[in-house]
Specification:
The protein has one domain. The chain has three helices and no strands. It is elongated and about 45 Å long. It comes from Candidatus Nitrotoga arctica.
Length: 87
């Protein structure tokens, strides 16, 4: 029963994280007083980082570890736009 609750909480966190990504990244950009191309670049990277965090949580929920987790995250990186993510 505890495992189900933990998975549900982590799943909710991951969903909230991805939906909140836009607003939190916008807030960070405003805090840094970014504009134009710098703001666009920052938002793009910030949103990708948050998406990878959400997928990392999903990998944990699936009980992936080691090579399986790395393979899962590598495939996720390929599906995200503009593959210029750090390894």
């Amino acid at each position: 029963m505890k495992k189900i609750v933990i998975v549900a909480v982590l799943g909710t966190f991951a969903v909230n994280l991805t939906f909140a990504a836009g607003s939190s990244c916008d807030a960070k950009a405003a805090e840094k007083k970014l504009a134009g191309a710098a703001k666009n670049s920052f938002l793009k990277k910030c949103n990708k980082d948050l998406a990878l965090t959400a997928y990392g949580i999903q990998a944990t929920e699936k009980k992936l570890a080691g090579a399986a987790k790395n393979s899962f995250l590598k495939n996720v990186k390929k599906t995200l736009p503009s593959n210029n993510l750090r390894a």
